[in-house]
Design a protein that fits this description.
Number of helices: 6
Shape: globular
Structural class: mainly alpha
Strand content: under 5%
Helix content: over 70%
Order of helices and strands: HHHHHH
Low-confidence stretches: none
């Protein structure tokens, strides 16, 4: 498969995490759903910054906004801001060990959620409080297993 464009692996992994995001949860648990879509996007931005970047972050964020039924573009803007940080520092973040990467990406997820919350409040749709950040600790715990799964897919399908 060398030389074959395997960009479908990237799109498929994002679509699978979008399906997980769309899975119904009890109302009380919705705040604890890890941000797997964001982590998947961040993985591909770290691994292949020449293929996955700001446009991918915007499109993925818009899809999540549509799934959530929130103000279209709010999370997309947060994901773009976080992805710009990743694209500017991907070589440094790659050198971090697993714990440092997890913490860095958890902070970027929190940043994206804060931007979304700020934009939602600016248009009068957001709630009060910081309950939307409860998903960040679970997101932190999901990074290492998700990274290994996506790394295995990237190697198996030789995504370059």
């Amino acid at each position: 498969m060398i030389g074959v464009n395997n960009g479908w692996v990237i799109a498929s992994s994002l679509l699978v995490t979008l399906l997980f995001h769309a899975a119904p949860l009890p109302l009380e648990w919705r705040w604890f759903r890890p941000e797997l879509v964001m982590l998947t996007l961040f993985y591909w931005s770290l691994a292949l910054p020449h293929k996955v970047g700001i446009v991918s972050a915007a499109v993925t964020g818009l899809m999540v906004d549509v799934l959530n039924g929130s103000a279209v573009g709010a999370l997309a803007m947060g994901m773009v801001v976080a992805d710009v940080f990743i694209l500017l520092n991907y070589q440094r973040i790659r050198q971090f060990d697993g714990l440092q990467q997890s913490i860095t990406l958890a902070v970027l997820v929190a940043l994206a959620l804060l931007v979304e919350h700020w934009l939602m409040r600016a248009v009068g749709l957001g709630g009060t409080g910081l309950t939307f950040l409860w998903s960040v600790p679970l997101t932190l715990l999901c990074w290492l297993p998700l990274r290994e799964i996506l790394r295995g897919l990237r190697r198996q399908f030789e995504v370059l």
